[in-house]
Structure formats: C-alpha cells, structure tokens
Amino acid sequence: MHRLLICSLFVCTSLAFQFPFSIPIFKSKDSAHIEQAHVSPRIAIIGAGAGGSSAAFWISKAKERFGIDVEIDVYERSDYIGGRSTVVYPYDDPTFAPLELGASIFVDANKNLMRASKEFNLTLTAFEDDDSNTGIWDGQEFVLVIESGSYLKSWWATLKVLWRYGYTAPTRTKTIVQSVIDRFLGFYTPDSPRWDDLSVFTERFQWASLTNQTASDFLEGNKVSPLFARELVEAATRVNYGQNVDEIHALGGAASMAATGASGVVAGNFLIFEHFLQNSTANVFLNTNVKEIQRKPGTSLWTVYTSAGSQTYQGVILAAPFHQTDITMPSDLAELIPPQPYVDLHVTLLTTRSEHSRPEYFGLTSNAQVPATILTTYEGARAGGVEPEFNSISYHGKVRKVDGAAEDAVTDPESTVKIFSKERVPDEWLETVFGNVSWVYRKLWQAYPVLLPTTEFPPVKLDQGFYYVNAFEPFISTMETETIASRNVVDLLLHEEFGSGICGALLSGTENTTQTTTPVDFVLGWDC
C-alpha cells in the first residue's frame, strides 16, 4: 500500500499481455497445462508478487552460477504481476502518469529493491524532495504541523518537534530506529543467517524483544515519552500498517519510522517484479488458480492442481498468504499455519481542483493553510474524543501526461490525492473534505498482517521440498522483506533438493575463502 514512510524495510488489467520480454504467459482458459513427463525436475512458485517473482529470480541466479538443472513455473491467479504492488491511471487513461494503488515506497536500506532498480535501469523518484507540510490530526485538532517535508527527512530535529516533545524522546527514538536498520542490513552480508523456524530465529538473533511487546511498551521501556510514541510514532504506524502504537509490535513501529531515502519507481514499483521474472527462466501462468497441493504417493514429490490441469514438482514455494489462497493441502500441513488476520485498508485515489483539503472540515477558518499530508493519531480518542475518520490524506502532485504521450502537458491540471481509511469514504464525505472531485478510484486491500506482539510464527519449511515465504510476514511485512524471505526459502530448498544454493554449497558465507573484506556495495544473492 502506499506507505508514506514505508520502512526499510508494499489496475493494469492489460499488463499480462504487454511484457517487453519473452517469458511464456498463459491465460487459464487457453492453456493446456496437463501433467506430463519432464526430464528436468521442476519447482512451482505460487504467487507472482514480491516474494514469488524474486524467488524465481533467486533460483535463476543459482542456475546461472552453478548449472542447477531445474525448471520454474510461477502461478498467479490475477492477471498481472506484482501482488500488492500495482498502479491505476487518472480517469482510467494510460496516457496519464500512473498512481500507486498498492505498495508505494522503499528506502535506502532496502538493498534488494535498490539494486534491482539499478540493474534493471528503472527510474526512481525521491519522495524526500517533497517540500509540502505534514500535519498530525487527532480527530479534533492538529497536534503538530511540520513544514517543508521534514517529516521524511529529519523529524527528530525540527524545532516544533523539540518544542512539543523535548530533546530526549526524538533522539532516543532515532537511536532505536538506527539500531534496527543496522541489524537489518545484516541480512545482506555474506554471513546472513538462514532460518526454517522464525521462533528460534528471533530468539537466537535477539529480535524477540522487538516482536514480543507493543511499540508503545518498548519505547516507554527505553524512556521515550508516551506522548511522542502515541502521537508522532503512531502517525507513522497508522499510515504504514493501519495499526496503533499500543497494538503493533515494536519491530513494526521501528520499521515505520525508518524513512531515510524514500523512493519509488516512476512508472510503478510493479516493474521491479516484472523484471525479476523477465530475468529468470520461469514459465509464468497468469489467471491460473492453484486449487490443491498434495504429496505424490510413494515419493517426496508434490502434485499441484490448478485451474488449467496438474503438474508434478520436486519443490513447491508458497509465496502468498495461505489463508487467502483457498488452496487445499494435506491437513497435517495446513494445521501448521495458524490463521493470520490482515488489516482491511480502504485506499481512495481521486483528482480535485482543490489545492488542499478544505479547512472548514478541520474546524479552521476558510483562509487557513491545511497541510498537504495529514497523518493521524488515536490519542484524541484515548482522551475521550472521536477517532479520525481516516488514517492519512496525502497530495501527490498534479495530473500529468506520461513522457511520449500525445500531449506533454495538461491544461489547468488537477491535483491527485490518496486516502487511507478503515472504512469506505462515501462521495458525500469526499465533497465535504475536498469540494469538487472529478475522478475517484477505490480499492479494498487486505493490505498487511496485523502485527500483534508474538513469540510464535508459522513454519518456513512445511515439509520436505515445501516452503512458505509468507511465514515471514508476522515478523515484518514489506516489499523488501518478501524478497529477503524468498531468498532464504530458495536457498534452503535448493540445498535440500540439489545440494547447492544461490551462492553454492555453503548455507552462509561467501565461497571465496581468501576474501578478507566484503565490498561496501555487496548484496547477498546479487553477489556471492
């Protein structure tokens, strides 16, 4: 979803037929994908979002480097690649620049997405260049307004932040966030751990204190003032994960504040995932629903039944939230994956001639300046007031033609706006807040998992040759972390079934034992 401050660690229906590369694309009604004998073993990947597309890419890296003999089939029930990362066009006109409907931003610490953007020659836009004001609304008043985009740049150092919260709370929070980022960067080093049990992983590598308590408890335990946590930090958790700071676990809270170097692909972040598949050797089956996965009797193989037929596989990678797939699998495996609630998030995109939200809605005078980006806190409701009717409102520039379109400019262009909310916002509400509204697009996402404090996680390995990428989501859920989780799964699966992984025979560490230092731009998986 659009994450205005997405942590460094997430409708083009015609995308399925516009790929600039030659991977097999089939629609379910037309494909005759029936079980047949194959010389090479096969791996099935279910889901073509960040996790599934990157899994295919990681397997292709191992094939390229070490000659692993395996074929890859990717199944996606939708008609596009990208999962929760997709775009729409103002007025449903593709000659206009697209708007992100799903996962919108990644940051400097997201080494896989940054490296992919560079390798695939994708143009980025920097959200930190935005010079608009940001306000935090509690349902009754603006408790804080930060000028000139500084919320994304240096929220801890502005005079208004220091005046309201003091010096200690922002600086301690900054230290905590930087510590989490530094530890997160360890996932890209040659010594990055591999894991098939996240409960063991979080304890062994000392992540448990960030996942077993709420963000508010963790911050207050580190002597961060409750007001700072429940206003400024909560504004970030509500826009990033739709959850309050006293509900979300501390890792989700810290990740929400890690906004340094926020960027997005100009033409849409989904292009990263299309290019992952372009640069793999995968066969991609869009509009193909996986119905059932069963063990092949008397073997360690798996049979995958789809809306187009069936196929036998040596390995299966499930890269979608299991309980949202309606896939039938052996009951002993299905019972291993506990139900995982997801946040229902209403995303509303619109165009308007209003340069900002109407001040009267916020109880201000008609000539008052309303911030272009409005985040929210639940703190007013805790004090007996009403909860804000939205999680965030953000202006995203003017409607414009894409480069190369028949018109280079739009006469008297309208502003584009994105709204996140728990409930659907009706047309009458939009008119009250914005006045004239020309175009509206609505989408209800099961956007991200409810990140409650926990010490238990789904298994990464369900059985021999069967792995679950989205087991990582209750730990943390972003586009970037899906690519990390898929790299881990691919490495485990390839070692188990083929005796060699993405970087060869070792599960951890570079195979070049004479290397004494790691290049500063080293990214595990891309480099070995």
Explain this structure to me?
It is a single chain. By secondary structure, this protein is of the alpha/beta class. 27% of the residues lie in helices and 19% in strands. It has helices at 50-66, 111-119, 150-154, 159-165, 168-184, 198-204, 208-211, 215-221, 226-241, 250-256, 270-278, 331-334, 379-382, 427-434, 479-498; strands at residues 25-26, 42-46, 71-75, 87-88, 99-100, 124-126, 134-137, 142-146, 263-265, 283-285, 290-295, 302-306, 309-313, 315-318, 342-352, 373-376, 392-398, 415-421, 437-449, 461-463, 466-468. The strands form five sheets. Strands 1-10-3-2-14-21-20 form a seven-stranded mixed beta sheet, with helices on one face. α1 (50-66) packs parallel to α11 (270-278) and α9 (226-241) packs across α10. It is globular. Residues 1-16 form the signal peptide. One of its GO terms (biological process) is prenylated protein catabolic process. Pfam families: NAD_binding_8 (PF13450), Prenylcys_lyase (PF07156).
Can you lay out the helices and strands and say which pair or pack?
Layout: E1 25-26, E2 42-46, H1 50-66, E3 71-75, E4 87-88, E5 99-100, H2 111-119, E6 124-126, E7 134-137, E8 142-146, H3 150-154, H4 159-165, H5 168-184, H6 198-204, H7 208-211, H8 215-221, H9 226-241, H10 250-256, E9 263-265, H11 270-278, E10 283-285, E11 290-295, E12 302-306, E13 309-313, E14 315-318, H12 331-334, E15 342-352, E16 373-376, H13 379-382, E17 392-398, E18 415-421, H14 427-434, E19 437-449, E20 461-463, E21 466-468, H15 479-498
Parallel strand pairs: 1-10, 2-3, 2-14, 3-10, 7-16, 14-21
Antiparallel strand pairs: 4-5, 6-9, 7-8, 11-12, 12-13, 15-18, 15-19, 16-17, 17-18, 20-21
Helix pairs in contact: 1-11, 1-15, 8-10, 9-10
